[in-house]
Amino acid sequence: MFSGYKQSQPFVWDILLSVESYLSKYENRDHALDRLVTWDAGDLHRLVVAFLGVRFPMALALNKSDLLSASENIKDVQEALPVHGAHVGVPMSAKEEMNYVWHHVKGSLHHEARKEVKEPTCVDKDHYAQDCDPPTNDAISSSSACGSSSLPDKMWECLSSALRLREPILVFPVSDMMTYEPLPGMDEAITKSVSLPNAGMIACLEAAGGEAPTLWDPMKRRYVTGSPNVSSDGRRAGEIHSKKEEARVTSLRDVLVLKPGSRVEDVFTVLKWMKVLGGEFVRAEGAGKIGDKPKLVKKDDLIGRHNRILKIMTTKRRNWQ
């Protein structure tokens, strides 16, 4: 189990000692690691749980919290945490979340229909439907009254809790370490990927107090390409001499989300899989934040805050120049 996940010896030893400490404290079994012949299936399961709790910590989505019988069960689960690798339990209701989504998806469809039939809609961004069904043709062409309630934010709370347990690594790939121009091949991924929020989801984001993705054009209602590092008069970040104006223009457009422990080679592999880069790895430069002097980074260097802005050079120069 440990070798399969390529865990270091110190990490494995910490897990073993924590299990031994537990057995000594709660079952009066001192030096349990020296007496493995006395272990049973329950002890082995406890070891696996201890490993999972550290290597793959979990946040539990306690669904159907709107049922009458749920409150007591949710209380019991939350009081038992952490257990079996789970550290957080968040009560939530899929029905409540989906009602909110359907309401604003319907609002997006109303917006499209209104362009042709010019009929009014009843979308109120501060409220959401309690019992809205999926939108139908009739719903698109006519207005409807919807109930209201507070914003359902348990999904966000659950995701936030999971991220806090094991924060991902953010990497910003660029083609130039001075102007921070994005890689040419990223245009396809950031405008046509099926994982991008659609118009209905963006309506939900905005109704919840958030903002649309940077490259979303609200007039064209689609994603558009473009570099953020260009001033209003067409000058690029490297051509601007005013520090104040340069700070306003210079930004990082693209980001990759990787798991903790990722290395420079992993970033290269992901970009090749996305067909953004091609050829073989030559070298890479990294920096921690905008304005930092770039430094050479090795292929097996861990990604962190000190080198999260990356320029990877390959044998196919057209991919990164």
From TrEMBL:
Highest taxon in the source lineage: Eukaryota
Name of this protein: Obg-like GTPase YGR210-like G4 motif-containing domain-containing protein
